[in-house]
Amino acid sequence: QLQASGGGLVQAGGSLRLSCAVPGSTFSRYALGWYRQAPGQGRLLIADINNEGRPNYADFVKGRFTISRDNAKKTTYLQMNSLKPEDSAVYFCNKDQYEAADLWSWGQGTLVTVSS
Q1: Is 33 in contact with 2 (CB distance < 8 Å)?
Q2: How much is the pLDDT for 44?
């Protein structure tokens, strides 16, 4: 099961680094994504990284968030800087939904709360 961690409560302007461990031997094959789901909203892909390490970002996180991956550790990371209250959400990792025929089962995610 996907295990996202690193969330918490932070003031606006602060930083957090999220991690997501992906069990299994096929990690390096897949493009990965970080998603977030705010209360009352759907789950949204905000950053993705292909199996060669090339990242892509939603406009509203570009320049503030950095996605990375460590294939040896089977872990993906999301460094979040200059956080805003509107970044508050539960954050999840999974395959990049636009590159994968199917997704892994969703883990519980990690809650990020940004106070103003």
Answers
A1: no
A2: 97
Contact 76, 20 (CB under 8 A): yes
CB 116 within 8 A of CB 13: no
Is residue 106 within 8 Å of 3, Cβ to Cβ?
no
Q: Is 62 helix (H, G, I), strand (E, B) or coil?
A: coil
Low-confidence ranges of the chain (pLDDT < 50): none
Contact status, residue 49 vs residue 55, Cβ threshold 8 Å: yes
Quote the distance between the C-alpha of residue 49 and its chain's center: 10
**99, 30 contact by CB (below 8 A):** yes
Tell me the one-letter amino acid at 90. Answer: V
